[in-house]
Amino acid sequence: MLPTKADRKVDELCGPFQGKTIRVFHTPSSPALFLVAALLLGTSVGAAGGGDVLAEVEGEAITAQAAEAALAAQLANLEEQIYKLKLEKLEEMIAETLLRQEAKKRGISIQELLGVEVASKVARLTEQEVDNFYQQRKAGLRGPEKEVRERIRSELNAQRAAAQKEAFVRQLRAERRVVVHLQRPAPIRVAVDGREGAALKGFPMAPVLIVEFSNFQCPYCRKALNELEKVRAAYPKEVKLVYRHFPIDRLHPLARLAAQAAECAGAEGHFWEYHDLLFSQADLSEQKLKELALGLKLGLQAFEQCLSGEWARARVAQDVEAGARAGVSGTPTFFINGRLVVGAQSFDVFKRIIEEELAMYRRQSLRTN
Length: 369
Known about the structure:
Elements: H1 5-14, E1 22-24, H2 31-40, E2 53-57, E3 60-63, H3 64-70, H4 72-106, H5 110-117, H6 127-137, H7 145-175, E4 199-202, E5 208-214, H8 219-234, E6 239-245, H9 255-267, H10 271-279, H11 286-295, H12 300-308, H13 310-325, E7 333-336, E8 339-342, H14 347-368
Parallel strand pairs: 5-6
Antiparallel strand pairs: 1-2, 2-3, 4-6, 5-7, 7-8
Helix pairs in contact: 4-5, 6-7, 9-10, 9-11, 9-13
């Protein structure tokens, strides 16, 4: 069997290491296809053999388990995407089954059923509604006005029909026994926590730990602040938050120095106050960082020495390295008891995962008591 392009690429990467014994074990011809196939079949990728040796360097083995640990964040994303695809298709199939059963019960076709329960019940669209829609959006609409209005009428009618069909399906579902056995995949957990001295907010003994990788120039990180405050308000004793830095220099050239400044403020016990000030600023120049420090009555000389010194630089670098090892590639990225959450998510997303973690914590507590 001829090697695939992916196989050849691995060999090319190994080529430069002359004088070293490097053995690469080609298992499936396409690792990506193998991964997706394993997930679609509902099996754990680790089930393929977590201890299988994938490569050896001078006799030192690189196992499937080690590779999977390094890919934990990406695997978590893939499993969640596959689950959502399955759930979406399952909901479509449930709706189709409910409509088919109801049509059979009435002795009519599905099309006739939809005519009676959907088409005949859709509210008639008025010219005023079409005109209102057109006037509100005409700046962005293209084409002759008559054609545009016809498209608007068609789209609005389709939306109303879809809404009526959805309402009818909900009614049928409420009247029948529908059991969904599809389970959300078991969470993949990434081993990441707060480094020694990392800023912590919340009850120290809280059972749920949120580790946030963020940066002070990121607009999405700023957007996430409100949702995190809602989390803290809803779970004052159950959740603790640890902040870790992840400046992305190519996108946010001032973020790294701002992170170092926050560490210097934290050394004097004012991390979170300085954190809030940074996220409220558009200007993160070095001069502005010093002005913010003065505003908090920090010792300017000590602050300047810290800002230009190795201590704060090393702490930020440690966070960046830890984030990269955990699979962080953008901000904000959160790990809720090791479970990956990417982006400025809503409170409801945080709440669902926190509630799952608290339920698990309570079950474990009952077993140990």
